Amino acid sequence: MVATPPPKAAPAPRFFSGFVAYFEGLGFLAKTPAVWHHAVVPMIVAMALFGLASALGLWGAVRAEGALLGAHSGGWATAGHWALLVVFGALGLVVALVVSLSLAQPLSGWALDGLVRGQEQALGLPPRPEEPLVASTLRSLRVTFVGLALGLPVLALLALLGFLVPPAVLVTVPLKVLVGALIIAWDFLDYPFGLRGVGVRGRLRWIGQHFGAVLGFGLAAMLVLVVPCVSLLVLPVGVLGATRLLASAEPR
To answer: By CB neighbour count within 10 A (0-12 exposed, 13-18 middle, 19+ buried), where does 47 fall?
Structure first.
């Protein structure tokens, strides 16, 4: 009787692997019409949430600017008004983007679950047991709030530092991009992690072990966000790419 050899450990994915995984998810979506009806749902939800969050963010930027400078007038005061509006407005849009993508995920849970299962089936992975809708939504909300609780204060602190020390924007702007990329990657990895039953601690440990790949994956998503129209695909494609990234690190 011949013994079955143990599964081979896959090489750990690195930065470039994570970057490419996102666009592999885009390729899978483009050539697989069977999952398109799942992909449309999170796109619609994300658009609605981003519109609402952007309006609230810009309103908050105007209120914050008025509270700091009040009714002061004059050349320097006018310049200060515009500078504060730009800083707070940009921060509001970044926060709106992160929040809308984060909340669109749990609100579109069943559709994203279908995307993950379709991608895993195409990769030849075994089917995973179904998870109750309520339990899946609550788990996803918990994971989302953990990511926002860790990331949003850092973004706010970097924005404040850039405002108080203008030359620091040379450092704070790249750091904000990196933090935003990690928040987005954290959200996209939720469903493939959830189907595997991995908790928050296990996810943090996996991300720490594959930090370069996760960062590359998040930066690829950030790059797509700046492309008009294509940015609407960032959520469904991100979940597909995250599934491929997670599968690439598993033994075969």
So the answer is: middle
